[in-house]
Specification:
Elements (H helix, E strand, L loop, with lengths): L2 E6 H6 L2 H14 L3 E7 L2 E7 L11 E3 L4 E9 L11 H12 L9 E9 L4 E6 L8 E5 L2 E5 L6
Antiparallel strand pairs: 1-3, 1-9, 2-3, 4-5, 5-6, 6-7, 8-9
């Protein structure tokens, strides 16, 4: 299982080094294979990867042309039904660009994802029907905080 944390940069900057280290250690429990921290617009996107299907697709996934950032946790079993994609993560971003949210109800798997569409000023959160993969959020004066760990929020 992967993990992610998305938070406003202003909020992240206020955290001391020890707290940032504790957060990363907790996130890595679910995603020990690769950790990426991305600063994009006014947000910090942290993703810890646990790879187990398709090609390794490092996250957060960014499409600068369309001003979109995606963080994903889980597995989409039928991602190849949508086309010749190298991974389920790659499919999610490309299907959103092509079809907006129309494809989401066709997904089969255990997953949760967050898509920031900065151009259209949208944040899209989605999960499988049973919400097997957790996702929590909190709205603050500085923006939205989203994580796969409740205790981080």
């Amino acid at each position: 299982m992967c993990s992610f944390l998305i938070l406003p940069k202003i909020y992240y900057d206020k955290l001391n080094k020890c707290v940032k280290k504790e957060i990363l250690e907790k996130l890595k429990l679910r995603g020990p294979d690769k950790t990426n921290i991305l600063e994009y617009k006014d947000y910090i996107f942290i993703h810890c990867l646990l790879h187990f299907s398709g090609e390794i697709t490092e996250q957060p996934l960014v499409d600068k042309k369309n001003d979109i950032v995606l963080c994903f946790n889980g597995e989409i079993y039928n991602y190849k039904d949508f086309g010749n994609y190298k991974s389920d993560t790659d499919m999610l971003l490309n299907e959103y660009i092509l079809n907006k949210t129309e494809f989401i109800h066709k997904l089969d798997g255990e997953f949760t994802f967050v898509l920031f569409d900065f151009k259209n000023k949208l944040v899209i959160q989605s999960s499988d029907i049973f919400k097997i993969k957790p996702q929590y959020y909190k709205i603050t004066n500085d923006g939205i905080i989203i994580s796969t760990f409740r205790s981080i929020i």
